[in-house]
Amino acid sequence: MEDMRDYLEWLERRGELIRVEEQLSPELEIPAFLRKAMYGKKGAVLFERVKGYPEWRVAGNLFTRVETVREALGVERLEEIGERPLRLLESLPLGLSEKISSLGKLKEMSSYLPKVVRRAEFTKNVVEDEPLNFIPAFKTWPKDASRYLTYPLVCFSDPRGVNSIGVYRVMLLDGFTGVIHWQIHKRGSQAWGDYFERNEGKMPVAIAIGSDIGTLLTAVSPVPYPMDKLLFAGFVRGSGLELYRLPSGILVPANAEAVIEGYVGVNELGEEGPFGDHFGFYDRPSERNELYPVFHAERLYYRDDPIYYGSVVGKPPLEDAVIGKAIERIFLPLMKMILPEVVDVNFPEHGVFQGVAIVSIKKRYPGQGKKVLNALWGTGQMALTKVIIVVSEDINVHDVNQVIWALASFVNPERDVLIIPNAHTDALDPAVPNPPLGSKLGIDATRKLPLEMNGRTVEEVKEDPEVLKKLEGLFKKYLGG
Fold first, then answer.
1. Among all residues, which ones are annotated catalytic?
2. Among the CATH numbers 2.60.40.1120, 2.60.40.60, 2.30.110.10, 3.40.50.2300, which is that of 81-309?
3. Are 196 and 267 in contact (CB under 8 A)?
């Protein structure tokens, strides 16, 4: 699928797209409809008429189900996507014979590389007078401070030349300015800090609206720095992403519905929020004295008959829960590369993705559970995960009842519960009194080895295999198996 329009047509053929003909407002009405549809598992929505914005249509709930996303990306398992870059790394040649045999891998690598093209559909139309007011951005909740871009593809390059594309909400202040909410651990904030240290007044930034489903997923993914996210988009899509270079030099997806070209003032900060976030509470950065960079829009480019894509958040499970589960599967191979003992991971959708993680490991030595806990907290975006539970490999991390049994059977709180005070946490966490400084909870619910039990052993009950064999006929007769 080349762009968002191809994806919408594909969803409609599958019966997973609702077309709404009635005119609705992007302020509260469209977001309320999207939440109702997502809670009811009704599929994606395309609003044909948007109050106050006759040029636009609006799409939402594009991440309808994990299975839909998987089929759209053309893979049997989402883990295959995370395995693609690892497979290429494993086959790097050492000598001449290896180089010759690896030509096929090099060809495969080239198929994922981005390509800069000379034309893009979104360049057909330009708005320079109050460009941000031209966009049907959402007001998602009644007490939100303003209208927001809720799934903007924020494109930029840091001073080292690493290209990034991220999703950071943008609060619109007026027709020319907005505030970008990129938290301190995000790539955008890191690049902004580099520009600040160099005392450069402006950081070129562009915001793309809409793209193919693979690029949309890449933008919100925790790709390890300094891997180029525009390259990683090729791994997710299964083919290289076509890019268009704006006059500012920023590369953006050529298949975008619209693009806002502008810059962030390196020495200019503004208040942002409140905003009803994915925990289901209003996030109020001003209460914790947080300020964020101000974005200046210089012009807006857009396709004929443009389609705006916005996401809505609130108490789970909404669209971000599907995104989180897809990312969980894609990045499991990368987690296994860093920690080979990891077997599986589950970020429960009601755990708001970064709130709770359950990880199973192949345990070989005493203390390995705590080793994994600490290692995970030191790895990428899992540094923000508040609660991590580690279980043994025979426990299905996706079966909450099995996890509860492991907690009840293998956890001695004095020995197996780890609390980390004064740690960096998710700034959006409503339970933390002084965000982003909070605490973390780790639970080692792995089966304990004798050394961890002071030599004591416990034996788990098992059926007698001879008795089971004897009763096979009766099982089939009376129990159906």
1. 277
2. 2.30.110.10
3. yes
Output the six-digit token pair for 355: 């709130």
Residue 310, SS3 per DSSP: coil
Q: 3-class SS at 451?
A: helix
Angle between helices 229-237 and 79-90 in degrees, nearest 10: 120
Average pLDDT over residues 417-442: 92
Tokens coding 49: 């008429």
Q: Quote the CA–CA distance of 156 and 206 in Å, as a whole number.
A: 7
- CATH topology for 339-453 is UbiD C-terminal domain-like (3.40.1670)
The pLDDT tens digits for 334-390 are 999 999 999 999 999 999 888 999 999 999 999 999 999 999 999 888 999 999 999
If one counts every other C-beta atom within 10 angstroms of the C-beta of residue 333, the result is: 20
Rounded CA separation 222/94 (Å):
30
Residue 230 burial (10 A CB sphere; 0-12, 13-18, 19+)? buried
pLDDT at 57 over 80: yes
Reported as half-sphere exposure (CB side, CA atoms, 13 A), residue 44 has a value of 28
Q: Which residues pair with 419 in a beta bridge?
A: 441
- Which residue intervals of 311-458 are DSSP H helices? 319-338, 368-377, 400-410, 413-416
Three-state DSSP state, 427: coil
CB atoms within 10 A of CB 220: 20
The phi, psi pair for 153, rounded to 5°, reads -90, 95
pTM of the model: 0.93
Q: Which residues of 137-148 are buried (b: 16+ CB within 10 A; e: fewer)?
A: bbbbbeebbbbb
Residues 74, 201: Cα–Cα separation, whole Å:
44
Number of neighbouring beta carbons within 10 Å of residue 452: 20
DSSP structure class, residue 245? E
